[in-house]
Design goal:
Strand content: 15-25%
Order of helices and strands: EEHHHEHEEHHHEHHHEE
Number of strands: 8
Number of helices: 10
Radius of gyration: 24 Å
CATH topology of the domain at 105-131 and 211-273: Alpha-Beta Plaits
Low-confidence stretches: 1-19
Helix content: 40-55%
CATH class of the domain at 105-131 and 211-273: Alpha Beta
CATH architecture of the domain at 105-131 and 211-273: 2-Layer Sandwich
Shape: elongated
Mean pLDDT: 92
């Protein structure tokens, strides 16, 4: 049987049932898995067609170069570049708030070690974002990892309650999948049986279960996300992910993200601010 929390015991005395050890994840991982490229031949052909002989830029980052090209198209300023190169050009874009130019730089990020609570918040960011997330209808969650909030993990009493609840839910999921597979035994398609079982059984899984999500976003959308979520007002997990993303983006495209400055909150988590807000 699935064990339940014994309600008449003080919280600190709750026992953790079940033999299966929980794998707890403490930190998210963010991977930059995709970068843009520039077709230099087509750029040269465009410039030649418009009688521009010698325009160049000094950035090797395709996203930054594409943003500069897009911005210069607006005013056809290729023949009269300002001094300072790409960094100065993008810095001016940030200062004047010409944010639409930043929508041409696109990054592909793979995020793991995060909870379903996190992804429910993340996918509220729609404009400029695309998502592909691990499916609980097709992926078996009988072997799963869990994300525990730090404020619970560091308190033995709260940690015991949390682990008990998570383990009970996970055990219930396994039992439901087994019973539902029996319920749908007459269906000839085994894949369909598994999908029907898992999609119903997942209803008992907690938000703490670990998930993976592939994110594609443009630089303007990412800046908006960072300003909202790498803030002291954001929830801790999404703040940590936003900080990890900004770490990567500042190294990858400093012209687009280098204006953010770091701070640290009393709980040790990082926040980031910029003078160029709402670009």
């Amino acid at each position: 049987m699935v064990s339940l929390i014994v309600r008449d015991k003080p919280p600190c005395m709750v026992n953790i049932y079940g033999a299966m050890a929980l794998k707890i994840i403490r930190e998210p991982r963010v991977y930059l898995v995709g970068r843009q490229i520039v077709d230099e031949g087509q750029v040269r052909e465009f410039l030649a067609d418009h009688e521009v002989d010698c325009w160049t830029t000094d950035t090797d980052v395709a996203g930054q170069k594409l943003c500069e090209i897009a911005g210069r198209v607006c005013y056809m300023s290729f023949a009269r570049p300002r001094p300072g190169g790409n960094q100065a050009y993008l810095g001016h874009i940030l200062e004047v708030g010409h944010g639409s130019v930043l929508e041409h730089a696109v990054f592909n990020l793979l995020i793991t070690g995060v909870s379903r609570s996190f992804t429910h918040e993340l996918v509220r960011h729609r404009a400029g974002f695309g998502y592909s997330q691990l499916s609980q209808r097709y992926v078996d969650e009988s072997v799963a990892d869990f994300v525990e909030p730090e404020c619970i993990a560091t308190d033995p009493c709260l940690d015991a309650i949390w682990r008990e609840a998570v383990q009970n839910c996970h055990q219930a999921y396994g039992l439901l999948v087994d019973r539902l597979m029996e319920k749908y035994a007459d269906l000839p398609d085994k894949t369909q049986r598994r999908k029907l079982a898992r999609q119903a059984a997942r209803s008992v899984l907690p938000n703490a279960i670990e998930t993976k999500i592939f994110v594609t976003a443009n630089a303007r959308a990412l800046r908006h996300f960072i300003e909202l979520r790498c803030s002291e007002h954001a929830e801790v997990e999404i703040r940590n992910v936003a900080a990890a993303m900004l770490d990567i983006l500042q190294k990858e495209a400093p012209g687009l993200f280098g204006d953010y400055r770091w701070g640290t909150l009393p709980d040790g988590t990082r926040v980031a601010e910029t003078t160029h807000r709402k670009v």
